[in-house]
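Bug #77: duplicate submission created two jobs. Keeping one. Sequence:
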Amino acid sequence: MLIGLAFGIFVIVKQRSGSFPPTGYSDRYYNVVSCLLLVFTILAITASGFAYAGNHQSLKRTIELKNSIVETGEDASETIQRVVKTLTGIQYLLHPYEPYKSFQLNVTTHKLGNESRTITSFVQQSGHSIDKAITTSYVVHLVVVTLNLVLVVAALVLLLLHWHPGFIIIILLCWILTTLSWLLTGVDFFIFTFAADTCSAFEDFVQNPQNNSLSSVLPCVDSSYSTQLLADIGFTISGAITQINSKIGDAIWSLGSDDKEVLKFGMICDPFTQAPNYSYAPQLCAEGAIKIGDLPNVLESFTCYNQDSAESCKNEGKFVSEYNYYKAWAYSGSIQKILDIYPDLRSLAECTVVKFTFSDVMPRQCKLFRVAVKRLWSSMLSLSIFMVVLVVIWVAKACQER
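Kept job's structure:
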């Protein structure tokens, strides 16, 4: 750029002082320069058109990719918030009967809440920063290419009008814009390389989440740990339901009933498979089995409230105390709430949201994004090369026209 500035100043000074020595040019030389000027002018205009298209396409694909990644963070935050809300409800249910477990849930809830706020803050700040970077890049490319195109056309017009001073100024300005075009070409090449590396990291993460460069920045636990965690949850809930069903069976037999249908109706649905996996499969529940959350409705008709006399409760077969009823209501409600959010817990433990998004981003959006950035980079590279050659031809033409 400095060389171009120096040359422009030199030509203007020489032009004003009239100190150029007279030089003759053959018609053949004149025709060659004119043909080259016309060819590279057309090439520069064509490259500008491709740069326009590449800039618009790159903007579109970048926004799509950014939105997919931001939506992933928002989905993860919403999932955590649902879990936090449920655990808070369980905490209040268990507090009168299990103060220590309620305290543990309170600690867990606060940790999850902090994670949710961190993700939300990161998504908002990153989203705004990325939007600014995308807009700035698009506007700079648009301005540089537009000015360059205007100056190329203006140079052609000034040549036809034989206005030499204005043509020299155009050469000077185009040299500056050509320098900016080379800078943008370097930036585009960096973005293309970064996009290729990022998309490769997405692909590797989908295939091997643990041994990947993204594993240190994504909220995904070790797969073996998450599998064991989910199995422990299933084991605990399944064991609790088995004990409840056993007590229900004992109670029915103690009442002297041997009706199999009555016994079957009183069974609580166990939505987990057997050891060792304890997978969540609610469709395996027997027909007529009741949900754990509906247990208080079953016990209500067998509950002896404090205002009822012991004799009337005995005569009516009400053998469950009011305290035990509300305790069962708290425990069954807690278990039901955990079952309701179990898909969310599994999604967080297995990093399902992130993996699903990356498996969608990697094969489809990433490919389109890389192609768009490569087109922008190649078009800017072509435009920069054509403009360097065109400026040199303009210099030769200026020497002819003087």
